[in-house]
Every structure is written in C-alpha cells, then in structure tokens.
Amino acid sequence: MAVVLTRMRLVLLWRTTNVLLIVGVTMGLLLALATLIFGVSADILAVAFAGWTIGWLLGPLFTGGGDGGLRPEYFTRLPMTARELATGLLAAAFAGPGAVITAVAFASLVVFGARHGVPAGLVAVPAAAAQVVLVILASRVVVGLLGEVMRTRLGAALVALPWAAAVAAASNIGIVAIALTRYDLHVTDWLLFLPSSWGIVAVQAAADSDWALCLTALIGLVVLIVALLAAWARLLDRRVSGVLARRTRHPSGDGLLVRHLPATPLGAVMAKELRNWSRDTLRSYNWYFAIAFGLFMCLMPLVVDLTWYLPWTGAVVTWMAAAGAATLFSTDGTALWLTLMRPGAERADVRGRQFAWLLKVAPLTVTFTIAGTGLSGLTWAWPGALALQAVALGAGAGLMVLLSVMAPIRMPDAHRRTGNAAVDGPNIVGLVWAMIGLIAVCALPSAAVVVAGLVLDMIALQWAGVALAAVTGAGYAWLFGRIAYRRLQTAGPELLLRLRTGHSAVARQRAAPVPGQGRRRLVIGLCLGIAWSPLLSATLSLISLATRTPSRTFWTFPLWLAPAFRVPTVIALVALSLLLYAIAVRTLMALVRTRAVPAVPPR
Amino acid sequence: MGLMELALELDELRMSFADRTVVHGLGLQVPSGTFFGLVGPNGAGKTTSLSMATGLLRPDAGTVRVFGVDLWRDPARAKAMLGVLPDDLALPERLTGREVLTYLGLLYGLTEQVVAERAQELLVLLGLLEAERTPVAGYSAGMRKKIGLATALLHGPRLLVLDEPFEAVDPISAATIRTILRRFVDTGGSVVVSSHEMALVERLCEHVAVIVDGRVAAAGPLQEVRGAGSLDEAFIRLSGAENTVTEGLSWLSS
C-alpha cells in the first residue's frame, strides 16, 4: 500500500514540477544546510527545530494542504481501515521535497550527537528520524483539525488567531527578540520542553550518560507519534466518510446594509458579495486573519513600550485584507459564466465587488487608524497614517479585482469544497506578495510627499500628501477596476476556461509574442518610476514659494532660478508629471488591448 | 417548409485544445419553434459545441447566430434572447435559490417586483420552495439542475440551450421540466437539449443531430435521422461503434 501511494505521489509530483517549486526547494535546501552548519549547540538546535516545526504547522494553510495531490477521498473505495490509509499516506508524505529537505536539516542532530561521542551519535539517529516523522505527522493532523474547526465563521476566526500571531511574530522578529531580552526570558530553556526539542534532549542526555532522561525523551517521541497517527486516522475517517460535509448550515439573515441596497445590477452584485463575505468561511478566514495580523503586528511592540506601530494598524489590516481578496474571482469559480451570459454586467460585477469590499473593510480599518494614531500620542504620524490608510483602501480595492482577473487560479467550486482552507485553498503565496508589493508601489508618491513634509518640517506639505493619497487612491480603484472589467469584456470566455480547466486555450496563440510588448512594459515602468518626482519637486517648490521659506535642496531647484522663471518651471514640472502618468496609462491600456486581441477574432 | 427562421445557426465551428482538435468545422441549423435534440458519444464535443454556441467558449473559427444575430460580434443582442443551462458550472453557491434568482434578475435589468414574482413562480413550479433557506452549495445534483433551469428561464428568453437538463433529476421533476419545456415550445419558444437518454430525446424532440468526433454525423427531422429503426440503433450505427464487449472480463463473476 505504502509503496503504491508513494509511487503515485512521485508521479503527481513530477507532473506538477514548476519554477516555483524549484525555487522553493532550493531555498529550503539552503535553510537546511544552514541548520546543518550552524546547529552546533543544543540551544541553537532547539530554536532551529522549533522554526522548522512551525513551518510545517503553518505551511499547509498557505500552500494548499500539503497533501501533494494525494487526496484521501481518492481512496475511500478501497477496502482498508482509516488507520491503514493514514499509515500509507504518511509513508507517501516522505516521498516529497519537503520531507527530504527537513531530513537534511534534522540530520544536524546526528552531527551534534556524534560530536559528543559514539553513544550520543547512535541515539541521535532514531531521535532525528522520529523528529522528522513528528513534524510531518503534526502538519497533517493540523490540516485535519482545521477541517473540523473551519466550518463556521467563529471557527474561521479562531483558526485565524494563532496563524496570524505566528506570522506577525515572524515578520516582526526584532521586536520579539527585544522583548525576550528585556524580560530576561531564557527562551531556549523553555523550548527544550517542547516536543520539537525532545530529540535534542535525548541526545544531550546520552552525552551526559543520563540514560533515564534519554529513554524518557525517546519514549515520549514515540508515544506522541502513535497518538498523532491515531488522531489523524480518526480525522481522515471523518473526512472521507462525509461526516463533515453532511452538515449544511442555513445562512443567517441579511444585515441592515444588504437590505437597503438599491435594486440595480450594481446593488445586486454588492448584496451577493456582502453575503459571500459573511457566509463563505474561506473569505471569513482571510478577513479575520487580516484583522488579527494587523492587531498582533502593531500591538506587539507595546510590550517593549514602543507606540510607533499603532498609527499603522488600520493600514496594515487593509493591506492584508486586500491580499486575502486577490483571488476574489477564483473563489467564485466557474460561476463567472453567469456574468458572461449578461453582456454589460461585467462592469457592475467588478464595481460591485469593489464597493462591497470597501464597505466591509473601510469602517473598521479607518477606526483602527484613527484610534491607533490617537492612542499612540504621536501627533506627527497623523498625515502619514491617514495617507497610507487612504491609498491602501483605494489601491487595494483596485488591485484585488485586477489581480484576480489577470491571475486566475483554479479552485474547487464552492459546492465541492471541504470547507477547509488548507485543503481547498490553492497556493496563493505569490499573489499575496504581489499584492503587498503593488500596494506599496501605489503608496510611494503620497508617502514621498508626506515624508518630504516631515523632513522639511512643512505641515502643509504633509497634508498635501494626504490629499494626494486620497486622490491617487480613488484613481487606482477607478483605473484598476476599469482595466479589470475591460479585461472581462474582451477575454471573459478565456478566464472562464482557466477557472474551469486550469489552463488556457489561447496558449498556443500567445506563443507568438505580441509585438512591442517588451518595449511597452519598459515605457510603463519608466513612466511610473519617474512620474512622481517632477510632481514632488513642483509641490515642494510651490510650498516654499508660498510660505516664503528659503530652500536650496535638489528638490526645490526651481527656486534657484531667476524669480520670473520659478512659477513657469513649477507648472512645467506638474505638466511633465501628468504627461508621464498619461503615457503610462495609455501604454498600459494598449498593452491590455493587444494581449486580448489574439484571442478575439472568430471570423 | 420553405424559408424558415433559424433560432440557432452554427457554421464551421472549430475548436482545439493544446494538442488535439475537439470540434472540426461543425455546422448546425435549429429551426425556430422546434424542440431540438443533440446526441453523441462521450467526448464527441457536445459540451464544447454548446459552450461555443452560447458564448462561454470562444471558438477558434466559425460563426454562431442566434435568430440571425452574430453571437460573437453582437453578444448583447444575441445573449438577451438566450437562456442557458451549462453542464457542471458553479452558481453563486453561498446564496439561497431565491437569492440567486433575485441577483440574476437584477443583473438582467428586471425590476425588483418582476424579479420577485418570477422567482416565486419558478421556485414553486420546480419544487424548490422547501429548500428555501438552503444555500445552493447544499443542493443535491437534481436540485442544482432545477435551479440552473430557473436561471435560464428567468429573463424570458426565446431560445433555451440546455446541456444534459435531465441528468440526475428524479422522474417527477423530469416530468415537470418536460412540461415546462413543452409549453415553452408550444408558445413559440425554441429549445436545444443535449442528452444521453435516447428514449427521452425520441419522445420530446422533433429534430435531432448526432455529433460524432466533433462533426455532425446526421441532422434533421427525427424520422429522417432514425430511419426505420430506433434512435438508439441509428446512434450506434452513426457513431461507428459496435458493442465491443463480446468476450473478456471472464474474471468478473462469482
């Protein structure tokens, strides 16, 4: 059984090998080698093993279940017990790059043991092996547990909490380190009590000839593995026997907002979307994850009396909420056909989704921004916080529809989902990073103006940055939404095919490169990269002129000129900026059009 | 018959995916006011052809006309006359049946009152009222077909294109659907259905087309296509497949 499943897994792995996987494997191997090289003490190993374990526990939720394509449902018809299935699937789980990489990393325990003599080295071999089995098994059990919990909104929210806390702590590791040293917490002492370190404890005890402790730690590992295997078998049984799927919950009634939406196409889309936001546990999970991540990220520094993060809470939540919505069209799956059957509805579909997202996200995040900035007592942060909040809302509302239309991902249709984000959700890591990066790019112009205002100590300039953020934010939402619905209008059937089958029929037509594509991209990049600087220079110069503050920085070069030329130069700079932006938008539109063309003409 | 209006006209439709051609220059004419059956073996290209005929899959070449309007050139006009039930595509799954119909009706530009009346009538007629509070994701296969049919009927189309409308539907519901479709045709509407149930096609349809290997192997009035035998026999003859299980599988007995 195990051999058959392993072979099946390897075939599936071979079929799905892509660049992303290769990059991931390379990075994983580098990390494993680092563990191998630097894992010279029990303390370091304890931290490293804890890190690897957290990776295995959190990973599946972001990368699509981690079952490597071997869904337990495939094997329901086979005459075997859940326990046999669990054992077989566990064996197959080792036939993957993740397990191999982890084995390399955990081999550091053997190296560590060998340094402390032969007995310690010998103990290290089974200890390291048990540690690898433990993390892989624990990862599967967590996926199974998620399926149990994530069937209600409350469950989704509960699951989001620990995940968000872990990711926030990982992305804010400096603060965690400061907190640990400040409160004099010897974290490695604590870590040794965790199962991720029991192998290390056993090896260390063997080195010290403390055989009772060595044996206890090893037995502890084995007992834990057996218990987890039993738990996984039980969870698998519940999953494949349909216990989880059978429960259908009735949706709760509509909120005040939904009941008062206008009876128009736009209102209908908004009502549908708002209902989805409250009824789809995958969406609920993404939303609660965004809130929890933002709160953890920005409240955690309070532990070390740092209030600098507070003002950005709302913006961070908005950022993450946009990232979670980057698969908006994909999560609806093939239901897109309904929009395609109603020409002209594409615009309402896109705009309705944008408005619904804003209605969902804006009230809470704006409150966070205002409350956070107020409570922080950092008066200088007001313009920056408001500007970032405004631009994140606008750019987020624009980019989520744009990305989900441009980069559709095939997901199981809603009625075929298990309700488990770790099993249903595709690998969206790339999309999430793209969204985070793109919003940052969108925020650059207004952020630059606010920062310039702070540096030059000009209040008016800082608030000009807020105004710019509001205007550009609205612009992004409008422009990106427009590109998205134009794309739906020109290439809707192709998008539907992608969502239906996972690949596109026009691939062979695209094989012939669109002429001028590279040049157009370069033009767009150059224009967007440069366009904000003349505008900033003009704004700074104008403010200096208006407030009669002498300034001789590079940015205020028009003031170096003879008085008669100053204002005309400023106007010329503004015009130049606008021209560059216009060129960028025009080129982008042209690019989108030509891309859609090869798919268009049936004679 | 003379010059008759065509509800649906497919001309030289071609479609290929990655490495294989699925539909080879398919042409079909569905006279207005008829009940038209589309049959063919598995993988013959029925669903692909119907997807192209309804604007859900862009053909590599060829034209589709709905009452003379080129669907791929003037989709707004063509699709307004078209009601579609695709095979196995999702709906807004988190909404209840009534919410789906309301959403779609408003998207079609119907007024709130008209949508409410039609939704109620369709839900009652198709027996979906008991599942009033169940989201579509929780529907059975047959209920999904029925709510799909309701979405196809909602805006009052002139032509219905239904992919496997009777699959997984219980006999009582199937009778209801047949009655609805029959009445639709009797009042001037046109229907195209694809199905694997030959008996059903023989009972319902005046015209049939047999699609084999992405081409029309035979098309016309039912009598002409089936000739002296049954549609079943004609189908097997046209698809060029004999019943191949004459020997083998000897281990399959106890």
From TrEMBL, chain A:
This protein's UniProt keywords: Membrane, Transmembrane, Transmembrane helix
Residues annotated as transmembrane: 12-38, 44-64, 85-114, 120-143, 155-180, 215-236, 285-304, 316-340, 361-382, 388-407, 428-454, 460-479, 522-545, 565-585
Source taxon at top rank: Bacteria
Record-given protein name: ABC-2 type transport system permease protein
Biological classification of the source: Bacteria, Bacillati, Actinomycetota, Actinomycetes, Streptosporangiales
From TrEMBL, chain B:
MF terms (GO), sorted A to Z: ATP binding; ATP hydrolysis activity
Pfam families to which the protein is assigned, alphabetical: ABC_tran
Keywords: ATP-binding, Nucleotide-binding, Transport
Record InterPro entries: AAA+_ATPase, ABC_transporter-like_ATP-bd, ABC_transporter-like_CS, ABC_Transporter_VariousFunc, P-loop_NTPase
PROSITE patterns listed in its UniProt record: ABC_TRANSPORTER_1 (PS00211), ABC_TRANSPORTER_2 (PS50893)
Positions of transmembrane segments: none
Domain called ABC transporter: residue spans: 8-238
Protein's name according to its UniProt entry: ABC transporter ATP-binding protein
Organism: Nonomuraea terrae
Higher taxonomy: Bacteria, Bacillati, Actinomycetota, Actinomycetes, Streptosporangiales
